[in-house]
């Protein structure tokens, strides 16, 4: 369903994919409980809360908030859930320092503008700042997940390490839905991209481009036919095929 500022779709049974104003999040429902994967910018909080209600849930009833990575456009509302509802927030071990706020590995809108100036980049930067893009990510109570914990959560997500965009970036495989939440390891659009469909983020956003490419190989090893990316719309396509498109496009990047 289309709402002001976001669209929520039940992409698979009990898997609610939310396309937010600038980034996406996913709600995994089990009965009255849920797992929230990512959660937009700090300024997206009202939308995140509303989308949880759209899924028939109460924002207070989360079993966990998981982050694919600790950038402010994905982890921007996690601190709120921790503070307001004592919802536990988890990341991979390699992302933990970023999530608690002692380390930051993210280009600023200013750096992007200087290095890749175009009107659409300016629009992205302006929007990012307005949505709270300069608010430091700092979830002091954040913990590191383990596989058993993840398996016990609504949706039973399986962590698939896909470092590159950030050192601890993680995708989540959802076996029952044959779906994969790819975060920023593979996206289907971005405010500064002129393309639609499967693609990598602009190299300026990659912490380690070589590892980002290995991450694509990890994704291609999954039995998934539904892609839930960190930016851009959901995509019903085999992940192997999607990775193939990304790789072909990487050789012909124009923007
Ligand atoms: Zn992102």
TrEMBL record:
- The Metallo-beta-lactamase domain extends over 22-231
- Sorted UniProt keywords: Hydrolase
- InterPro entries in the record, alphabetically? Metallo-B-lactamas (IPR001279), NDM-1-like (IPR050855), RibonucZ/Hydroxyglut_hydro (IPR036866)
Q: Which Gene3D superfamilies match?
A: Ribonuclease Z/Hydroxyacylglutathione hydrolase-like
Which is one GO molecular function term here?
hydrolase activity
Full protein name: MBL fold metallo-hydrolase
Q: Which organism is it from?
A: Arthrobacter yangruifuii
